[in-house]
Amino acid sequence: MSKVYADENLKVFTLNSNPALAEEIAKVIGVELGKCSVARFSDGEVQINIEESIRGCDVFIIQSTSAPVNEHIMELLIMIDALKRASAKTINIVMPYYGYARQDRKARAREPITSKLVANLLETAGATRIITLDLHAPQIQGFFDIPIDHLVGVPILGEYFKSKSLEDVVIVSPDHGGVTRARKLAERLKAPIAIIDKRRPRPNVAEVMNIVGQVDGKTAILIDDMIDTAGTITLAANALIESGAKEVYACCTHPVLSGPAIERIQNSNIKELVVTNSIELPEEKKIDKVTELSVAPLMGEAIIRVHEEQSVSTLFD
């Protein structure tokens, strides 16, 4: 018999970005998903209707701002406004994947900081808390003036690789920015780390330079927060094999997998790509090389802890 969460003041809603994950999270908590409809007017404007009372409730909306990013952000903002006007006690955004996170600073003159703009929009609309997972840049937490619970995916990925009992493992960061993440996975698997020193001549184009660390004869596990076009990760896999690695696995929290990504992974030296379901993968992207792990138990536990005013920090381990 499935468990039932007793407190009726906890409401969980989903929008269109990842309904399958939302169903899983609701099952973990033991609640039914809230009733709401998301429709489009003939000119494309979003229409949202909440079909049950949420007055005085702690409401959690599950919505990754993955592709189509702008559609999903507008759905979320309109839903927040609807909840605020319907007298929700708190409006908690559960955003497994935070879109625009890579636009987190001014890298050149006259550039916007779009991830800060998204934070402003969510707050202005009426969000009272954010629960998210593996932000591209942890400092994005500072863009918010409301509480933000920043969960991490490494424990989920680490448990999976532990269960495989691989030998002679080395954890590889595809760039200098991901060293902290690689070290966390390395600590879990009691393995050394290596770093790929790469130069990126322009966005979405990576050029591998050299490898810092010992990979010869080892099983390499590449780890990143997200894989977009898969250029970086497949070039890194090639460089590792050329440097004598026995085999190459790759893992990430967010499978953006846009453009030529799936074709590149299919034709690459990567033996297996391990991802989470923070972004919903369409059927055509679920190739044999891709293994999907669920973040629903982590997200469900975070929602319960926030609602019951318990500590969330234990989930970071």
UniProtKB/TrEMBL annotation:
Q: Which domain of life is it from?
A: Bacteria
Q: What is the UniProt remark on how the cofactor binds and its stoichiometry?
A: Binds 2 Mg(2+) ions per subunit.
Q: Where does Mg(2+) bind?
A: 136, 175
What CDD domains does the entry give? PRTases_typeI (cd06223)
The family database entries (Pfam families) matched by this protein are listed as: Pribosyl_synth (PF14572), Pribosyltran_N (PF13793)
- Note the Gene3D superfamilies from the entry: 3.40.50.2020
**InterPro entries referenced in this protein's UniProt entry, alphabetically:** PRib_PP_synth_CS, Pribosyltran_N, PRTase-like, PRTase_dom, Rib-P_diPkinase, Rib-P_diPkinase_bac
SMART domains cross-referenced by the UniProt entry: Pribosyltran_N
Pathway the protein acts in: Metabolic intermediate biosynthesis; 5-phospho-alpha-D-ribose 1-diphosphate biosynthesis; 5-phospho-alpha-D-ribose 1-diphosphate from D-ribose 5-phosphate (route I): step 1/1
Query: SUPFAM superfamilies from the entry?
Result: PRTase-like (SSF53271)
Is Mitochondrion one of the keywords? no
Q: Which cofactor does it need?
A: Mg(2+)
Specify the Ribose-phosphate pyrophosphokinase N-terminal domain's residue ranges.
10-126
Q: What residues does ATP bind to?
A: 43-45, 102-103
> Where, per UniProt, does this protein localize?
Cytoplasm
State the EC number(s).
Answer: 2.7.6.1
Keywords in alphabetical order: ATP-binding, Cytoplasm, Kinase, Magnesium, Metal-binding, Nucleotide biosynthesis, Nucleotide-binding, Transferase
Concerning its family, UniProt says: Belongs to the ribose-phosphate pyrophosphokinase family. Class I subfamily.
Q: What's the subunit arrangement here?
A: Homohexamer.
What function does the entry list?
Answer: Involved in the biosynthesis of the central metabolite phospho-alpha-D-ribosyl-1-pyrophosphate (PRPP) via the transfer of pyrophosphoryl group from ATP to 1-hydroxyl of ribose-5-phosphate (Rib-5-P).
What is the name of this protein?
Answer: Ribose-phosphate pyrophosphokinase
